[in-house]
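Appendix B. Extra example for self-study. Work through it before the problem class; the solution is given directly after the inputs so you can check yourself.
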Amino acid sequence: MGCAFLRQSLTEKGHAMFRHKMRAMSTAIVIISAATALASETVVTDDQGRSEVIYDVGILHPAPGAQITYDYCSGCHSEMIIAQQGQTRDGWDDILVWMVEDMGMGEIDNEDRNMILDYLATYYNPDRPHFPKN
Amino acid sequence: MDNSFDPKTDPGRDTRVTPSVQETQDAEVPDRARRRFLGTASAAAIGGFAGMTVPFGKNFPEGLIPAAFAEENPLGDKDGLSLLNDRPVNAETPAHLLDDAITPTNRHFIRNNGLLPDNMDADGWTLTVDGFVDTPLSLSIQDLKDQFEVVTSALHIECGGNGRSAFDPPARGNQWTTGAIACSNWTGVRLKDVLEAAGVQSNAVYTAHYGADIHLSGDPEKDTLSRGLPIERASGDDILIAFEMNGGPLHPMNGAPLRLVVPGWPGSCSQKWLTRIEIRDQVHDGAKMTGKSYRVPAYPVAPGTDVPDEDMVIMGPMPVKSLITFPENGVSTGMSTEVRGHAWVGDKTVSTLEVSIDFGATWQAADLDAPVNKGAWQNWRATVSFPQAGYYEIWARATDTDGVAQPHAIAWNPRGYLNNTFHRVGLMAS
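Solution. Structure tokens for the complete assembly:
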């Protein structure tokens, strides 16, 4: 979770999503960011040969696109709710629209948005290939 | 530091902690979220507080979590619940742990839309009743106890999305299986009595409920959830403004210190951490009243249909349903066994409960209790005998006083509500 915030602060990406002071989280973010230099890195590759470095994606399926998805979403809610879903790309698109229009998320950079949708529509599609097993 | 975290082999767990303190920390902080904090919180991290001085920071033990950030196990003292989501916390109760006639507090499911309020003290809590009333009220919990009759009732609450996980195509939201149902003893005052004291005006149409929980975005202007009831339903004598649960204080995850309990309607009508009830002269349009939230199509649709918002209607009473709480799914049993559970329906009563051991080909009547009071679920039991050793499924089917029975198949709807299909329990008989 920590590196998510560090990466956002470094890149300014997704900064607008934090326009609202998060009462419960704001100080926690600071403490996590301060220590993210310690975070480990893992290289993940998908079946099309694309590779990407991920840091911490919680329970999300570790694949290219997982980190940016985690970064944008986990500021406000756990990735556990993401991992339960099985949606088409259109279904995920609707959810992102709802997040921005109703739930207080900032506008999402278009390139990032496509990466997030690609990831979700691939690994959290209606066949639920990565439904959490508890 | 050990930086060996590999999400491919260890998906829910961050091992980035100093090895020498790992054992102690794991014992103290059982959940995944806290483990994540462990890897990062250190004396060095404390020093990273922007604009905050930590006078004794140099004494802070390596690896310890600053108490202010030490997240509790999200399930706390809840017993045996399955965690669906840890922020916001959502957890359901396995069917065999709902066997009690009255659900213990530590087995009542959790369905939260936001974060817990900063302050849940009963002292100083105020309930406001306003809108289209003759006399707006501002009541402490003591005022409620002093000015209105205090009653205790067994009342069932079921999440509108209970059973969503069986939808195909999947519907978005927490993927509840069967466990977002409970029937605890609630003590409080009747909503009806409080509304009468306020003097509901003749043009009143709907209630609007507000709670103190915090929106996930942290925006204090946003409500996590604000739903309401048609004024006719709000006038029912079975709805409580509750301040006790099973004889004790409300559980923080279940709305402490004050909540509504509206039996038989989607759980979201039973506002937790209740601060305000507004009487409106029109249908409420608060958070999760509109769009597709807690709404179903006005007409039957094929699974996967994209239904326009204007064709979605607000859900009313929950449909007839039942649960098998004994035996537990998947156990071995003798050639006969007792079967028992609960049955419920919104704003009506269940008239018959039947069980089948042959995949619904034949049914036998169970012994079904009357509700202990209006709004309670109904307990039932039967004894079934198996003709030969092998695999069986117990199915339960409730029928309400209008002759409406549980269906075999889901009436699919876009958001995955109102799944009242049969509960099935598999057994190996020998």
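Self-check: The first helix of chain A runs from residue 2 to 11. If your reasoning did not lead you there, revisit section 3.
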